[in-house]
Write a structure and sequence with these properties.
Elements: H1 3-15, E1 77-79, H2 87-102, H3 117-127, H4 129-132, H5 138-157, E2 207-208, E3 216-217, H6 235-242, H7 259-277, H8 325-328, E4 339-341
Parallel strand pairs: 1-4
Antiparallel strand pairs: 2-3
Helix pairs in contact: 2-5, 5-7
This protein binds copper (II) ion.
Copper (II) ion (CU) binds at residues 125, 132-133, 142, 251, 254.
């Protein structure tokens, strides 16, 4: 992304009011159960779904899932930037994440695969990593993963809030001063050892599994040597910051770090902002489906989101429900997708 557009985004984030999608409905959007066409003229026709999953059969259960119908989101949840939450709200978010790390896995009872519901997310991400990075599904798939994570916090850990996002542009000039990376929040950089363990914050005693042969400390290795101006916030600089080492730097292991979810909420917000500024392109979707075939251009709005492969150690249990890309294109399109960013 060009530096200038990030500057504009940063400026817009400071003063932007809450924005509902105002562009055209995706042409391929589902029709509702009465057969009525989708779109603004049929707004009231579809009920809000019981959007949370349940676990009463010991697995992620999507029986309550209803298809997304554009315009059916009448009361969107609002996601806020981390530092605009009260201390109490920050604490309850972190409490809920810790709780999810202590909630036994619903995908498998093999502790070598996934030990908790939190790790069900990092395991799923780990397993399908080549199909959801460097591919067309990057934005819709991560949008959905973090939405399900938000639901899991609410369903399994009684979390009353929404998923916060981390506007890292606010921290670009001094990452080590970020309140996100403070003692009372997500903790800061690793200790520089091998592994470079995070030793402060709410997750200093957590152990992580994906991408490691056995459980080990959560690791980070940020490069905070050069203060950055927002104008210098280029892709290379971001890579130096987050890809210098540690779990977050390695896509298969990235889901180990609780920062992953608030970081992807920021990415998701940027997608939203871009759609608002480019309504004629807001439904655009194309590209390759596998990072091993970068020139493929086979992706379609009717593709289903990538899920765990059949078989494997989870005995057919999966996290990602049958959702088509077109259902995810609008964060407040309807059904489960009913949130906006402040
Ligand atoms: Cu990812």
């Amino acid at each position: 992304m060009a530096p200038i557009s990030l500057l504009l985004l940063a400026a817009a984030a400071i003063s932007a009011p809450l924005i509902r999608r105002s562009g055209p409905a995706p042409e391929l959007y589902y029709k509702n159960s009465n057969g009525a066409g989708a779109g603004a003229n049929n707004r009231a026709a579809f009920p809000q779904p019981a959007r949370h999953f349940s676990s009463n059969n010991g697995a992620f259960n999507y029986a309550g899932q209803q298809q997304t119908v554009y315009g059916a989101c009448s009361a969107p949840a609002v996601r806020r930037e981390w530092r605009s939450l009260s201390q109490d709200a920050q604490r309850s978010y972190l409490d809920a994440v810790v709780c999810l790390m202590r909630t036994p896995s619903l995908l498998t009872n093999l502790s070598s695969v996934s030990r908790s519901v939190f790790e069900d997310f990092s395991y799923t991400h780990f397993t399908v990593v080549s199909q959801v990075h460097g591919t067309a599904q990057f934005l819709p798939w991560h949008r959905t993963l973090i939405l399900l994570f938000e639901f899991a916090l609410q369903d399994f850990c009684d979390y009353k809030g929404t998923l916060p996002y981390w506007d890292w542009t606010k921290d670009a000039s001094a990452m080590h001063k970020s309140p996100v990376l403070s003692d009372s929040a997500f903790g800061g950089n690793g200790n520089g050892g091998t592994p470079s363990c995070v030793q402060n914050g709410r997750f200093s005693s957590a152990t992580v599994l994906m991408g490691h042969s056995s459980p080990q400390c959560l690791t980070r290795r940020f490069d905070d040597a050069n203060g950055m101006q927002a104008a210098q916030y280029t892709g290379d600089v971001v890579r130096a910051l987050v890809q210098n080492g540690g779990d977050f730097a390695n896509p298969p292991a990235a889901g180990n770090d609780p920062l992953f979810f608030i970081h992807h909420a920021m990415i998701d917000k940027i997608w939203n902002d871009w759609q608002d500024e480019n309504p004629q392109l807001a439904n655009a979707y194309s590209g390759n489906m596998d990072s091993m075939n970068p020139n493929g251009n086979e992706a379609k709005l009717t593709d289903f989101l990538v899920d765990l492969p059949p078989g494997g150690p989870t005995n057919g249990f999966t996290l990602i429900p049958a959702i088509q890309v077109q259902e995810t294109i609008w964060s407040d399109g309807g059904g489960w997708f009913c949130y906006i960013y402040e």
